[in-house]
Amino acid sequence: MTLLIGLMLLLMLLGMPIAYALGLSSLIYVVVCTDISPMIVAQRICVGADSLILLALPFFLLAGEIMNAAGITRRLTRLALAVIGPPRGGLSYVVVTVNVLVAMVSGAAIASAAAVGSTMVPMMERKGYPRSFAAALNAAAATMGPIIPPSVGFIIYASLSGVSVGKLFIAGTLPGLLLAAGTALVCAWAARKHNHPAGEHHSRRELWESFLDAIPALLMPVIILGGIFGGLVTPTEAGALAVGYGLVAGLVIYRSLRWRDLPGIFLVTARRTASIMMIIACASCFGFLITHAIDAAGFIGGFQSLTQSRAVLLLLLMGLILALGTVMEGGSIMIILTPLLLPVLKAYQIDLIHFGVIFQLAIMIGLLTPPVGMLLFVMSGISRVSVRDILQHVWPFLFMLCVLLILVTYIPGLSLWLVEWTGTRIK
Amino acid sequence: MKANKTNNSALDRATDVLLTVLSVSLVGIMLVAVFFRYALGHALYWSDEVVRYLFVWFTLLGAAICLRQREHIRVEYFAEKLPMRIRRGVERALLVAVCLFQLAMVVLGFVWVWSMRGALTSALQWPLNWFFYAALPVSMLLGLAYGLRRLARGEYVESGSAPDEAAGSPEGGAS
After folding, report:
1. CB-CB contact of A100 with A284 (8 Å)
2. B113: which chain A residues are within 8 Å (Cβ-Cβ)?
3. Each residue of A123-161: b (16+ CB within 10 Å) or e?
4. Which of residues A307 and B94 earns the better pLDDT score?
5. Which residues of A, range 235-254, sit inside 8 Å of B by Cβ?
6. How far is B4 from chain A (nearest CA, A)?
7. Is B155 on the interface with A (CB under 8 A)?
8. Which end of chain A is more exposed for a tag (fewer CB within 10 A), N or C?
């Protein structure tokens, strides 16, 4: 048990790819410490990769990628520019709005941050915003992507915890919109404090034209979310529909996507999915051995000797996830931690859907905290601003995110009201 | 660092094509299945099964390709702190360990495939061991080949932080 976890951590921290660190430590543990046949490792990895729920992963990653390549993101930006118009700090609200719209199709933060940021940061700089503020805002706004459905993180969490993906998606909706409102509030504050330039006035005609142009793009979230929340299709099917519709929009309606771009998009997304899926497959083997080896009662007892209170436990877990989030990539934290925490959550009668939202939100904060904050790195690369400069402007957003995390944690209704309200309709 | 990009072998191209085809088929079959269920009113009996097993192949073959591309998600924070000479030594040892793990998976996987001969998939009645279980040893064999090639070429250090394609950082991972 100590060997299993210790070896895994050692290999992982030395820099072995996480998937192989999980697999290799499992294999060594089985051979050295148990009399189980080592074939179990091969079996568990195979079985861990076999999941219709996780199939939604490549689909939503592809849909997001196609959306960017087909210029759908660009059209949504044009619409948001025309709608928001003149108020002070107008462009920062445009960034928030575009991120909300993109989040309704894309399930990942990094890819959408790159797509939206690479157009918005230069545009904001031209209008007189400090580049470091533009980069910080784009990094912070991208955290909406995986909270507002669909969400790669929720799909992974669902496959690990057995909770319905659809319900998690619904649970993330309200916190996601609150996150958008919170980001806009910080923008309003910053616009006043730093005297940000006003937005441009756009004619009615531009508003109408950009709306017409964006209709096929706006239909994409309607199909995905309508299909899932209306109980018509499973999230996995909705993902496939989103890819299909995105291809039609890009190839036929907008004609902005070329056939010869497609193999590249499919291949790159496939590799990205596979690197995540391999971790999940190996983690399922690792998790199986842990639950096999662990003395569940003693493990839970350890937590209970620390605290009896659900509120304190949630605080501890939040701290743990945030601490890990500073040095680890988010999805991996979720994959490794969820199987370990499930028995504890059940012992404290914490709702698994509620915890999923808390988990995802805490991981998003991790994407913005150094030393390892992927969104900081990506935005730093796009905007050519150092991570240090971005950090100066990112802290108000981080503060807002932490407040939201506490609200979501201690007001379960924020996640669960909508789930109860929609009831059993979701597949 | 980009040496592996300039001399792509036929094997690299073939595996890339295979992964792309798998990826397209997953979307295609799923769409056809949705169409049959909702538009034509009768579900295909084979689609779930085929899609599930293709997805397993997709994952495992994709992982082997990621090993070639040095795109696997990993914690780089501490490795980057090491002096380059020590770091290369550590990374070489880790890559050797990954290769040994894959070798073990190839052997164990084929033993498993052999021991499960005769079992059939539930819907299509295809041989279960070749259609499903073989994905692991076959992919691990490919991964082993790529790992050994990297060792032979001295490409120990995972690039990771230097994405070679437009689609954002490979480290972007599950977030």
Report:
1. no
2. none
3. ebbeeebbbbbbbbbbbbbbbbbbbbbbbbbbbbbbbbb
4. B94
5. 236-237, 239-241, 243-244
6. 16
7. no
8. N
Instruction: Report the alpha-carbon distance of residue A273 to residue A281 in Å, rounded.
Output: 12
Give me the mean pLDDT over the A227-234 stretch.
Answer: 87
**Chain segment B153-171, per-residue pLDDT in tens:** 888 776 544 333 333 333 4
pLDDT (tens digit per residue) in A256-274: 899 999 999 999 999 999 9
- How much is the mean pLDDT over chain B? 84
Verify whether the Cβ–Cβ distance B63 to A19 is below 8 Å: yes
Residue A426: what pLDDT?
62
Q: What is the DSSP letter of A308?
A: S
Q: How far is A319 from chain B (nearest CA, A)?
A: 19
Judged by CB atoms closer than 8 Å, whether chains meet at A275 and B73 is answered as: yes
Higher pLDDT, B158 or B25: B25
Q: Is A55 on the interface with B (CB under 8 A)?
A: yes
A163-222 residues touching B, CB cutoff 8 A: none
ipTM of the predicted structure?
0.87
Cis peptide leading into A216, omega within 30 of 0?
A: no
